[in-house]
Amino acid sequence: MKIIYKLKLSAALLLLPALLFYSCKKDMSKQAPGISDTKNTVARSANETVSIWETTTDQSKLLQQQGSVNFAADAGTNPTTITVDENTTYQTIDGFGYALTGGSASLINGLGANQSTFLTDIFSTASGHVGSSFVRITIGASDLSSSDFTYDDMPSGQTDVNLNNFSISKEMTDLVPVLKKIIAINPSIKILATPWTAPVWMKTGSGGNGGFTGGSLNTAYYDAYARYFVKYIQAMAAQDINIYAVTPQNEPLNANNNPAMTMQSNEEANFIKNNLGPQFSANGISAKIIAYDHNCDQPGYPEAVLGDSGANPYVDGSAFHLYAGDISALTTVHNAYPNKNVYFTEQFIGGPGNFGGDLDWHVNNLIIGAPRNWSRVVLEWNLAADPNYNPHTAGGCSTCLGAVTISGNNYTRNTAYYTVAHASEFVKAGAMRISSNTFTSSIQNVAFKNPDGTKVVVTLNTASSTQSFKIKWGSESFTYSLPAGAVATFTWTGTPSNGGPPIGQTITLKGFNNQYVSGENGTQAMWCNRPTAQAWEQFLVVDEGNGNVALQSMGKYVSSENGTQAITCNRTSVGGWEIFKWGTNADGTITLQGSNGKFVSSENGTQAMTCTRATASGWESFGVNK
Hints:
Layout (H helix, E strand, L loop, with lengths): L1 H30 L13 E11 L8 E10 L7 E12 L2 E5 L2 H8 L4 H10 L10 E6 L35 H11 L4 E6 L7 E4 L7 E4 L4 H17 L6 E2 L18 H18 L5 E9 L3 H7 L8 E11 L3 H8 L4 E6 L2 E2 L4 H18 L2 E6 L3 E2 L14 E2 L2 E4 L2 E4 L1 H10 L7 E5 L6 E7 L5 E7 L5 E7 L2 E7 L4 E6 L13 E2 L1 E2 L5 E3 L8 E4 L8 E7 L2 E6 L2 E4 L8 E4 L8 E5 L5 E5 L4 E3 L8 E4 L9 E2 L2
Parallel strand pairs: 3-22, 4-5, 4-14, 5-6, 6-9, 9-10, 10-11, 11-12, 12-14, 15-17
Antiparallel strand pairs: 1-2, 1-24, 2-23, 3-19, 7-8, 13-16, 17-18, 19-20, 20-21, 21-24, 22-23, 25-29, 26-37, 27-28, 29-30, 30-31, 30-33, 31-32, 33-34, 35-36
């Protein structure tokens, strides 16, 4: 009797694990988290919300905020995919903005009660404002001043070598007061100052307009002109206006403006190395010296200045306009002298203008093109004009459309307002340009990363029809459609994810043998041996929470079969064995780990697939949508 009892007890103990296993299996199929008999596929977004601002050519949207979108795990393909890589960085960005000419300043000074609103709109870095962080002003008159003048004008035939007559008094009515208000709004703004001409008595070979047009700097007055710059910077500093940088001459190859002065590359190099640079050093002036400041068709000019061993140490970089040449000239100069900076300092829009065409050209070439070619700055010419494109000198630009048109104490926004704002409102001083691929047609783009980590992508649709494109960041992406000619700026925060399941997407899985995984019509064990992907080789990724997924093909779910037999695709609902932990490898391939803790293996396509491997290697890794 005792023997029989012991045998029965032994048999019961032997059967207990199997009973417990069966009971647990039944329990898992009913109660495992995320399990239900019917599944509603919901695309799970990543945490990053993308804000969008758009401008269209018909002006129905003018820097208008759109509904936000969310990044989601990347899946599917789009031939126009902008891949943003914030770990690949290029130049630092100083800012986007405008020229504040004497004419602009006088108009702004007449805005009355609207002046504060206007200046805050343009220069405040608070949310919702243009946030311009860089401004270009003129040393003396430009062609967008009401009259010609310098800071040391003398009667014909007289000179002032000691600069006893030097004075910035003509700027005290408009320019200086307006600049002080701008600085109060944005104390960190950087100011670039540029002369259109030296005082007439310093010039030789001058043309018309009382000597203000044409001519070149007389070598006898190189030293006096360098001291003129010093006195200017000191006079502005006395007004609490810090000059960040100067260029020795605006458009040094253009003799026909009013005012104007030519300065050949060898003359500029000599002036910098023998006079301007040493004078700045001797007087403790930290303002940067930026060479050239003219069109992209003559990159040899800044290269010659930078190539002068005496001038080079004093020169921070070179500045460009785009009335001739191609924006790629900036890269040409950068590549020749990669330790020197590049700036884009001027481009005007001719009135009355064509909003759509001007928007396209300026965003493509300046807002996108200049930073993609190493520019730290993008400046439009100029901030303000009246309805008749005044003020300007006789012979000066008579069609220069301001970023705003000021009429009395009111102003309206024009194209350049929006081209600059699409970048300056979002790209902050100190941002870095980061990697983003571009295309020969359709969607052009440039990407930045702000000091606070915010990402900014500016896009332009250069095609004649609406274009769909994807922005991919890490292993996440979103898709957006942009009308023909439209501009959109995208911003978001966070760090790129290293991978996650593409919830709600239909995918293919390719094994280490370069063959596709097949659901085998749900009638037999699954294999990884199909050379092409048909219906049963496509799987819908269903969210099961916490990085877990279920895979569904043709309405049936893949099951690990708890690792006790080859995996199948024949379950009509999701239980414990139909849930897999999605993993991402460094090379972008993925792994699937069953609820038994084991990995799915392709078995190299030589036998039915299993979920029995304790570790993952080549046969346990799968390419998604390859």
